[in-house]
Every structure is written in C-alpha cells, then in structure tokens.
Amino acid sequence: MSKSDKTNKSDRSVIYESGFTGHRSEYIAHLMRFINSQPELHGKFVFVLNEQIRELIGELSTSPSYCIKFLKLNKEHKNSITRSFWEWQLIAEVIKKQKSIYEIIFMEIDPYLALLCTNRFKKFDLSVKGILFQPYIHFKEVKERDFSIFKQFLKNYIFQKLSILLNSNIKKLFVLNDKRTVDIMNKRIKHVFFNLPDPIVNDIKNVDSNILKNVADKYAIKNFKKNLLLFGSIDYRKNLINIINSIKLLPIEVKKDVHLIVAGKFSTEVREKYLKHIDTNKDEISIAYNDSFVNGAEREPLFQSCDLVLMPYINFYSASSVLGHAISHNKNVIVSKKGLIGRIVKEHNLGIAVDPLNAEEIKEAISKLLSDAKEFRYDCSMLIEEYSPHSFSKAILLN
Q1: Which residues contact 311 (CB under 8 A, 6 or more apart)?
Q2: Whole-structure pTM value
Q3: Residues 229 and 371 in one domain
Q4: SS3 for 326?
Q5: Do 236 and 160 fall into the same domain?
Q6: Do both 12 and 152 map to the same domain?
Q7: Which residues in 119-148 are b (16+ Cβ under 10 Å) and which e?
C-alpha cells in the first residue's frame, strides 16, 4: 500500500483522464511532477486514468506522492453521453472506496457536462473543475454559414450553460490560452471560467545520437532537405490531402528540396483514403510516414529536425499542444486562420494563418516561410515563461 492510500484527509481530489493520446499523457505528467515537487500536496490527489496511459508516464506511475487507479476504457459507445454515464459508474466505485473525496477535476470536461446535471453525479456532492476544450464562443467566431458549425455552436452553448445553471458545484472551467473568451463567457453565463496556459516545455535536451539517427532513418530526414512536419493523431482535421496538394503546387526548384514528414497514427476513418493519396503522389513529392503513436523520445528529434510545422487544421477551433512543441523549438507554423490558434499565431508572429481548404494559400505560406524565415523569427523565452507547466499545474491543482 502506498503512502497516498494510507492518507485519510477530507480534502482529497480525483483527477480524471479517459484518454491517452496526444497532450493527455503530457498534461498528467505535468501535474504529477508538480505534486511531487510540493510536499504539502502529497497524499491529496487520486489519479483515475485510462490504463493505456501507464507506459506513457513511465516512472511517475510509481510515485508515493499520489494514488493512481487505472481503468479499462475500451468499450464502444453510441455517443459521448452514454459513454460518460458508463465511465461514471467506474469512477464512482473508485470514489466510494477512497472516501474523503470532495472534488473531481476532469482533464477534458466537455463530454461530461450532461452527466454533471444528473442525480447520479450530484448525489456525491463533489466540487467540480475541468478543462473546457470547445467553448461555444469558438464556433460563433467562424464566419462561414455552415449548418454543421451552427449546430455545434448551439449544442455547446446549451450544454455549457445548462450544466453550470443546474449544478452549482461547478467551480472552475478552464479555457486554454484565451482570455477574451473567458471574459465573454463569464459575463454571459456565470463567473466560473478561467484562462489556462497550455504548457510549453522548456527542457529540450540533447538528443542521443542513436535515437536521432533512428528517427532520421525512419522518416528519411536529410539535413539538406526542407523538412515539413505534420504531427499528432492523423485524422481528417489534419488536412493531409490539401497539404500534399499544396506541396505539388510549389515551383519545381522548391518542391525538389521539400520533404513532408507525417508522424502519427492514422485514424481508421481516413487511413485508406490518406494512404492512397500518399501512394498516388509519392513519385512527385518526397513523403515519409509512420502509422503509429509517436512517443516523447521520437517527438523531440522530429521537432528539432524540421524546418516548418504544418497545422492548417480543418474544423479545429481550440488550442493544440502541437503549437507548444513548435514554440519550444522556435519553429514557424502554418495554421488555419479560423479559431484560437490563428489568433495566437498572428498575435505573436509565429508563422502564417491560411484558409485550410485553399491549397494555393498553403503553398504560398510554405514558400514565404522557407524563403523569408528572418521575417518570422520570434523569441520563445517569454512565451515559455508565461505558458510553463508550473503555471498550468498550479492553476488546476491549487484553489
């Protein structure tokens, strides 16, 4: 039994994370390191996590400073609401056994807003905090008259407003990197929204030469090439087809020096379509991909070796940890002009914002950033200080 299991205080919190890909393991690792560094927080937190995150957090899973309960969350569900109700049964069992729990922190609260309004949740009388990834305001800012966007806006508005009105125990909803949205939502709904710095890690290490070589070989990275990186879970939002089409539009003398790196696991709904498009165009442009999850050891040399990070995402209006990795390596980015990331990039001159559906615009942005890199140089030190993992963890864990 760990030190945390023996603790019986009335101020313990559950931290819940149902996912494991992308930023999820990174966020959990930040919180764990912060708790380890603060003796007064030892024994006060119970992490309830997807079992698949275990290997991604490594030795942090053995710390005596907190308790961890891993759950098997591989059951298929019709929608996020039915899934949240099923997950709550598992979480509730942990809470009953742990006792002395007064608070739950959802690392992604969006899918659980309907749950928070139900008696099955409210009977536990838990104080609630969580990260809100899709505030309704982000969809309202999209100018195109698209019914699917309006439907998403309306759905998010209803769930976000009603959950807060129907559960007075919702104390803090964090919105990543967006003080403007926080101010608007506090005025229109209730003062429970807080800005949260999406963490940028400032611990870039010298990559082991063997790892660097292995990654270079795996992704066919050459120093004399202009390496463009598309990183993360490769789904339809990553916009791979338009990216490939935009590279095809480059002048021949530029195109022959460009190498596209696609690093991340392909989602099932796009795998066949994307791989076919890669195969169709592999003779015209240089492309390398690896259809598997990218761990931290591979991620660092990928960002270190690339010249440009591609983020012209489709239907994506919130924050992304990929931007943080790009900033920590002082890399320029190409992003969608729609949504939060576009605003951040313009404000800090981190790169160029484009229409993600316009291959010509993406092509022009690639050309400009590769030829006029000096114009888009920026100092990442101030951003790293403001968006530190310490600030992120402190905001979430301390009242």
Answers
A1: 320, 322, 323, 326, 333, 334, 335, 336, 341
A2: 0.79
A3: yes
A4: helix
A5: no
A6: yes
A7: eebbeeebebbbbbbbbbbbbbbbeeeeee
Total tally of structural domains belonging to the chain: 2
Which residue reads 């160029």 in tokens? 352
User: What is the CA angle 154-158-163, rounded to 5?
Assistant: 155
Task: Tell me the three state secondary structure of residue 289.
Answer: strand
Copy the structure tokens of residue 319: 């924050």
Same domain, 80 and 189: yes
**Using an 8 Å Cβ cutoff, are 227 and 305 in contact?**
yes
What CATH number does residue 48 fall under?
3.40.50.2000
Same domain, residue pair 177 and 246: no
Which domain range does residue 282 map to? Answer: 209-379
Do both 99 and 183 map to the same domain?
Answer: yes
Q: What is the pLDDT along the chain (399 residues), one digit of tens a residue?
A: 344 444 444 589 999 999 988 789 999 999 999 999 999 999 999 999 999 999 999 999 999 999 999 999 988 888 889 999 999 999 999 999 987 999 999 999 999 999 999 999 999 999 999 999 999 988 776 656 677 778 888 899 999 999 999 999 999 999 998 899 999 999 999 999 999 988 887 766 667 788 888 999 999 999 899 999 999 989 999 999 999 999 999 999 999 999 999 999 999 999 999 999 999 999 999 999 999 988 878 888 999 999 999 999 987 767 788 998 899 898 999 999 887 888 889 888 999 999 999 999 999 999 999 998 788 888 777 788 888 899 999 999 997
Q: Is residue 136 domain-shared with residue 37, that is, in the same domain?
A: yes
